[in-house]
Design brief:
The structure holds 2 protein chains of 2 kinds. By secondary structure, chain A is of the alpha/beta class. Chain A contains 12 helices and 9 strands. Helices cover 39% and strands 14% of the residues of chain A. The longest helix of chain A has 21 residues, at 284-304. In chain B, strands 3-2-4-5-6 form a 5-stranded parallel β-sheet. A 3-stranded antiparallel β-sheet of chain B has the order 1-8-7. In chain B, helix 3 links the parallel strand 4 (98-106) and strand 5. In chain B, helix 1 (10-28) crosses helix 2. Classes of the chains: A alpha/beta, B alpha/beta.
């Protein structure tokens, strides 16, 4: 199995084998971060540009650390202080970064499909760090990596995703990745936050949190993104916590070893109770650690995904 | 690929490894501060076998680690189909140790160059020595083996294949010619 893609845009297009290759490569990279000298020279001389059109701390820092542990040079562009404010288009920004001889653009953008559009216009690699409500592939990969590390497999696992499924790129990427790897996925949210026809992605739908937790091996708790509530569909915070919040009482009725995940940042007391977030079932901080290994693997693989060009040249 | 000649059979492979084990013990005057690090893939199995020989000879257990050098290669951007990255598994501190690197074939020396960089990122060994089953010449870097199972003059048109029970079902070393 060899990686041939120059970009990572989402998990929807990837085969099961490609997903497994990323996970296996990440597993090898995890050891690097445990060394005293946390660095390998694999991307020495390569330039990675973080281009973020939406605020992000953890994803951007995680990508930056991943790139630096591979010895790449990293440039961060915050669009609030860039020529984007002067009206430059996304494609122009991309071609300019390419003209600066950067090798990989890691982009977060508010519009679904932005990463794919950029990738089609550029020869250099594009890694999607979240596009609108569409996909956030590296987040789902690190969720899946953490699950696999904890439970030894993905095939046959029952995973529930709880929260704002409608606006969540994390949910969509998780659904694609988990179902391709043979997990059974259930989504759980108030009816207003479940997209129409989500069943077509091969998931089950429930509006009852106790049902979602009942026989689940893992629950992925999404952040309630109140900033995305443009049409008043969101319940009030307290109302949400009462009906869907992950509390100790609710977990007590679930499997004893149920794994609790959250992509962060946490809204304590809204989608998850503090004692659960900090409790024995929580792997939230391990997810953060694993995010580095997964992003190292992705940056390494896309940087190698030029074999077609090489063969054409020789 | 046409098989041209068998250089070592299973017995010869074993005798070579036993001799290397003896030489390692002789040169280092025993096993104090000694450890073996095999380079993936076949070097890792060879390192374990040399450690087994040392145990039989000296009744001493020598730590064995596995080094994956993929990330340290100097041809990462050139090779058409990229190699799969595997784990480095060295669960002991190599600082102030005598590390014997073990690989199957010594050829250009570039793998060993990468392995030296990788090792030194993990600690500061007191010394690093090199043991190989086959030295086939054609060095591109100033690197030599401290212990060699067999020196074989080869043409660059040929390939030396080391086959081991663990990876290939049987122990042998053959020269194959490129068609």
């Amino acid at each position: 199995m060899h990686w041939i893609r120059k970009d990572l845009l989402g998990l929807e297009d990837l085969s099961r084998e490609e997903l497994e290759l990323i996970l296996a490569t990440a597993d090898s990279f995890k050891e690097v971060s445990t060394r005293e000298i946390k660095k390998v020279p694999a991307l020495r001389g390569k330039t990675v540009v973080n281009l973020f059109y939406e605020p992000s701390t953890r994803t951007r820092v995680s990508f930056e650390i991943a790139a630096k542990r591979l010895s790449a040079d990293v440039i961060n562009i915050a669009t609030e202080t860039s020529s984007v404010q002067k009206g430059e288009t996304l494609i122009d920004t991309g071609t300019n970064i390419q003209a600066l001889k950067a090798d990989i653009i890691v982009m977060r953008h508010g519009y679904s499909g932005a990463a794919e559009m950029l990738a089609r216009h550029l020869d250099i690699s594009v890694v999607n760090a979240g596009d609108g409500w569409h996909e956030h592939p590296t987040q789902a990969l690190l969720d899946i990596f953490t699950l696999k590390e904890k439970l030894g497999r993905i095939e046959g696992l029952k995973v529930s995703i709880v929260g704002d499924i409608a606006h969540s790129r994390v949910a969509r990427s998780n659904i694609w990745g988990l179902t391709k790897l043979g997990a059974q996925v259930t989504v759980c949210a108030p009816a207003m936050l479940i997209p129409v026809a989500i069943e077509k992605l091969g998931v089950q739908v429930t509006h009852d949190i106790d049902k979602a937790l009942a026989d689940a091996d893992a629950v992925n708790v999404l952040r309630m993104q109140f900033e995305r509530d443009s049409d008043g569909a969101f319940p009030k915070q307290l109302e949400y916590f009462r009906n869907f919040g992950i509390t100790r009482e609710r977990l007590n009725k679930a499997k004893k070893e149920i794994i609790v995940m959250h992509p962060g940042p946490l809204n304590r007391g809204i989608e998850i109770a503090s004692d659960v977030a900090d409790g024995v079932n929580s792997v939230i901080l391990e997810q953060v650690t694993n995010g580095i290994a997964v992003r190292m693997a992705v940056l390494f693989l896309v940087s190698q995904g030029h074999d077609k060009k090489y063969e054409d040249a020789h | 690929m046409k098989e041209k000649a068998k250089i070592l059979d299973a017995d010869a492979v074993n005798r070579s490894l036993q001799r290397i084990a003896h030489e390692i013990l002789e040169k280092n005057k025993g096993t104090k501060d000694l450890c073996l690090v095999g380079i993936r893939n076949r070097g890792a199995y060879l390192a374990q076998r040399v450690a087994d020989c040392i145990k039989k000879i000296d009744n001493a257990v020598v730590a064995v680690g596995i080094l994956d050098i993929t990330l340290y290669r100097d041809d990462l951007t050139l090779i058409a189909s990229q190699p799969v990255v595997h784990k480095t598994e060295i669960d002991f501190d190599i600082t102030d140790k005598t590390v014997v690197l073990v690989d199957d074939v010594l050829y250009s020396g570039r793998t060993i160059r990468a392995a030296l960089d990788a090792l030194i990122d993990l600690g500061r060994p007191r010394s690093i020595q090199l043991a190989v089953l086959i030295d086939r010449g054609h060095r591109e870097l100033p690197i030599r083996a401290d212990y060699a199972g067999k020196n074989i003059p080869t043409s660059q048109q040929e390939t030396v294949e080391v086959r081991l029970i663990e990876t290939d079902g049987k122990d042998e070393v053959v020269i194959v010619g490129k068609e």
